[in-house]
Predict the structure of peptidylprolyl isomerase.
Amino acid sequence: MGVFRTFALFLLASQLGAASEVSVSLPEGVTKEILKAGDGVHYPRAGDTVTMHYTGTLTENGEKFDSSVDRGTPFKTQIGVGEVIRGWDEGVPTMSLGEKAVLKMTSDFGYGDQGAGGVIPPGADLTFEVQLLKIS
């Protein structure tokens, strides 16, 4: 009965566009929490070009290191082909068009032991709020 109730609440939240309390576990150190449901029909596949807004923070302390929202320009890339960090290649294809979600990933699915650009320390776990705007 508890599983059915949780699933029913998830469906209701998705239909209302409310934040979902259900987190989807993805393979290999990536999790997704749905903040706003997408259309539930259109999902990106490997090789598709996606356009999205995102804000990236360090999971440990919440410090923001990058944001397409702050720049006012959505980010456009091919997904699932190694153009972006592995956490995005794993997480974004689980999002449907219009969906807004939080993707959390361990460092091996982010920038690993190297870190990046002086703003992401080596071994840092990352959190991204991502909204999938377009798939082409």
